[in-house]
Amino acid sequence: MSKKVLYELEFPVRCSPGILYEFLSTPAGLQEWFADKVDFRDNVFSFSWNGTTEEAEVMEQEEDEFIRLHWTHAPKDEFFEFRIQISEVTNETILVVKDFAEKKEVKDQSQLWEYQVKDLFHRIGS
């Protein structure tokens, strides 16, 4: 089994960090764009798609800045993260997505994130 690699994607977004953070860190916000159904209990999100449920534990978070999650079935050193940055040059809000994938699957996984984030931006009107 080959080791997964960390990759990072950046998406400029026309939205305040506070509003964006709500869509990245709450069950109601995540259910708008990330999964069909989202529940949160005891620091663990349950994401459901087409009857399949996956759980992710919140590893770390800072309001309006980032949330890092760990799929409970994945190796301990793997995570996915949503980070909100402000460009010093343009003062634009940037969503940074970090995730792990097999090296040969990074392109496909990146396209999946791009599709998901496009749906997020549609929901927030960006």
Automatic annotation (TrEMBL):
Q: Which Pfam families match?
A: START_2
Gene3D superfamilies reported for this sequence: 3.30.530.20
InterPro entries in the cross-refs: START-like_dom_sf, START_2
Taxonomically, which superkingdom? Bacteria
According to the entry, every stretch annotated as the START-like domain falls at 1-125
Which first-to-last residue range defines the signal peptide?
A: none
Protein name according to UniProt:
START-like domain-containing protein
Q: Which organism is it from?
A: Chitinophaga terrae (ex Kim and Jung 2007)
